[in-house]
Amino acid sequence: MTKTETKERIRNITGDEKSILKYIFFKQPSSKKNYTGLKNAAENFIRHLMNALYPFHLGRYEKGISVERKSLREIRLAKISLRHSLGYVCGKGSAENLANAFFSKLPCLKALIETDIQAAYEGDPAAKSIDEVILTYPAFLAITAYRFAHEIYMLKVPLLPRLITEYAHSLTGIDIHPGAMIGGYFFIDHGTGIVIGETTVIGEHVKLYQQVTLGAKSFELGPDGKAVKGIKRHPEIGDYVVIYAGATILGGNTHIGHHCVIGGNVWLTHSVEPYNTVTVQICENKTDGMKEPFQE
Prior knowledge:
This protein is an alpha/beta fold and 296 residues long. The protein folds into two domains: 160 residues, serine acetyltransferase, domain 1, CATH 1.10.3130; 117 residues, Hexapeptide repeat proteins (UDP N-Acetylglucosamine Acyltransferase, domain 1, 3 Solenoid). Helices cover 43% and strands 13% of the residues. Helix 3 packs antiparallel against helix 4 and helix 8 runs antiparallel to helix 9. It starts with a helix and ends with a strand.
C-alpha cells in the first residue's frame, strides 16, 4: 500500500483511531517490505525440521502413523516453511533454489549435530542418556538451530539466519550469531547467558559453561562515525579448549590456543598459547580487591 492510499483510508477514520494510525504509518521508521508472517514461518521451519530429524523424541505422538511417515511429512512441512521464509527475504524466484541448496546439505548437518549430542553425553556426568540430552538440554536446541542458521547464512541469505538463532535464544538464553564458525563436538553446559559473536571461530571439542562471552573488544569507526561492518571483531578458540562460567574473551586478534583452560570470571583481551591455564588471581592490595588474569 502506498502512502497516498494509506492517507486516503485514514481520512475515512475518525477520533482516536485516526491519530493512532497516523503515528504508526508516518511517525515510525517504515520498511519497504511487508514481513508479516516471516517470524512464524522461520519458527515453523525450525520446529518441523527438528521433528523430522528426531522423530522418536520431538513432535506429537500420533497413533497409527509410523515414524518414517511422520519424519517424511515433517521434512515436507519444513521445506514449505523454508521456501515461505526465503520468499520474504530473497524473493520467490530464488526461494526454491536456495531451499534445495540447504536441504542438499542436510545429511552433513545431521552428522555434525550428532557430534554435538555425543559431546554433551560424554562431557557431562549428569547426562544419563542420549535421550536426556535431546529432550532436556537447552544447548541441544540452541546449537542445532545455530547449525541450521549458519548453513543458510553461508548461502548469503539476509535476515532469516538471525531470526532462527534469535528464536532459539529466546527459548534458551544462549545467543549464538549465525555467522560464527563452530567445529564439531561442541558442548555448552547449562548455557544461560552465553554470547558468541558473529566473527568468532571455535575449533572442535570445545566446551563452554554458562555466562561465557566471546565478544568484540571495540568497534572500528568509519569516516561517518558509524561502526565498520564485516571486519573480524571476535576471538578465535582452538580445539579442546574449556572455558568456565563467567569468562569474557574479547577481540578479533585474541587467539586461545588448543588444549587451554580458561577459568571462571577471567577477562581476556590477549592471546594465550596452547596448553595453558588462565585463572583469576586476587591482588595483594586488599583495599581495592582488584582481580587480574593469571596464566600458569
